[in-house]
Amino acid sequence: KRAYGSGCFDQASDMSAQEISKLLRNLADPERAEHSGRYFKTGQGEYGEGDWFLGIRVPDIRAQVKKCGAVSLEDIQVLLTSAFHEERLFALLLLVQKFTKGDEKEQTAIYNLYLKNTHRINNWDLVDSSASYIVGSYLESRDRRILYKLAKSASVWERRIAVISTFQFIGNNQFDDAIKLARLLLNDDEDLIHKAVGWMLREIGKRNVAAEKAYLQAHYKKMPRTMLRYAIEKFPEQERKKYLSGEA
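Above: the chain's sequence. Below: its structure in token form.
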């Protein structure tokens, strides 16, 4: 008999969405759930409006994902439809784990499943923990036009998926797509996109500061303040001040 309260199951056993849901509910903490609701802006008119939380720490979720047995894509799809944030996060981390270990056929299936469910990948942590590992990795040696389609989406989460996916390319010193998307999203209205673009520019700077500064020199005076602050976070203080004052 499987014991839900103490952790995940035998790795040799296939797990259903219902079993995973039961496990996660046994790990729930109502007090933490209330805090998470505030942290992830679930109030009326906020970006996470209507999301529900069980109240489970992310390290605990990751630990359970690592210990869990095989889960079918069909069951992962069920988890992705959950009203609970942590169940959707669990599903995405399972997809990342399966993608990393999968062959090309399975990776293609995971990539397609991911793109069909972008409306359920609807908070910044869900995007950030999955996009580069699935979309970015899949597109490493493939046509990347889908990123530009996502970047023009009305959905802030699809736009963030496009930006964060480039982290995979940046890690391999491929900066072109991140820079092109940074230009495309320069006038985006959402702070979550400003942060994502600034973060990717900062990551480029860690590897090739000249490439980042070339973008900054062309655009820094027009960049949203948050985007600029994120991009220059690692610069020396005096240099940061020059960019922020428009005197770089």
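The two ends are 66 Å apart (CA to CA).
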